[in-house]
């Protein structure tokens, strides 16, 4: 029985790669640096931001980049240019909650990068019961221990959870933790062939399909 649905943020709950590409290049332009090549951004997508940026912009001063990125990101969020969750995805979350399942987020973002999603007036406020990120977990994906704090806090076993994500690292983390994994391919950044099939329980073309998949997985003894 699946009791909890754990969801990645970027290119899973909301489509963010293209928006993040624009955001990061805006920050780099303000610093007088050349733009990131799109191919480089795609190949490093899914890595924690501050681990990926030296690859995207070699020689970047992260101490200058980080605060400028934060203020620019906040402006993009306020302008509706980043982290916009489509109505159909919110409806899917509502269906999961109405089915009696706990819904949580687990992301490679840092606390400041998800702070706006934790506001009491955010659309997620009454839909999710917890957000796990790089600042409240000891390990990051693809390490299976990325789920340790979430599992300890909820008292759930891995077999009672399913993780929904968009990257091969998401799959490795979930599979290594003994958790079912659903690959969300909606962004088009990756195809099913990019994943290690050993760790993929199911795949979906669009996020709302997760409702039916979770129902099907819940009927399979684990």
From TrEMBL:
GO terms for molecular function: phosphoglycolate phosphatase activity. One of its GO terms (biological process) is DNA repair. Pfam families: HAD_2. Gene3D superfamilies: HAD superfamily/HAD-like (3.40.50.1000), Putative phosphatase, domain 2 (1.10.150.240). This is Phosphoglycolate phosphatase. It comes from Actinoplanes italicus. The lineage of its organism: Bacteria, Bacillati, Actinomycetota, Actinomycetes, Micromonosporales.
């Amino acid at each position: 029985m699946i009791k909890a649905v754990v969801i990645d943020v970027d290119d899973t709950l909301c489509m963010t790669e293209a928006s993040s590409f624009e955001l990061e290049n805006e920050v780099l332009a303000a610093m007088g640096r050349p733009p990131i090549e799109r191919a480089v951004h795609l190949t490093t997508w899914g890595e924690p931001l501050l681990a990926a940026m030296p690859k995207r912009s070699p020689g970047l001063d992260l101490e200058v980049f980080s605060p400028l990125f934060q203020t620019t990101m906040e402006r993009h969020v306020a302008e509706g240019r980043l982290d916009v969750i489509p109505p159909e995805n919110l409806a899917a979350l509502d269906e999961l909650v109405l089915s009696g399942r706990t819904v949580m987020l687990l992301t490679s973002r840092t606390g400041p990068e998800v702070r706006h999603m934790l506001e009491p007036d955010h659309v997620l406020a009454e839909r999710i019961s917890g957000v796990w990120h790089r600042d409240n977990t000891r390990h990051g994906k693809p390490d299976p221990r990325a789920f340790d704090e979430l599992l300890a806090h909820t008292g759930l076993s891995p077999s009672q959870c399913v993780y929904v994500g968009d990257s091969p690292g998401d799959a490795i983390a979930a599979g290594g933790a003994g958790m079912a994994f659903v690959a969300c391919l909606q962004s088009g950044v990756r195809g099913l062939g990019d994943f290690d099939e050993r760790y993929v329980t199911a795949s979906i073309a669009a996020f709302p399909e997760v409702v039916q998949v979770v129902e099907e997985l819940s009927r399979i003894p684990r």
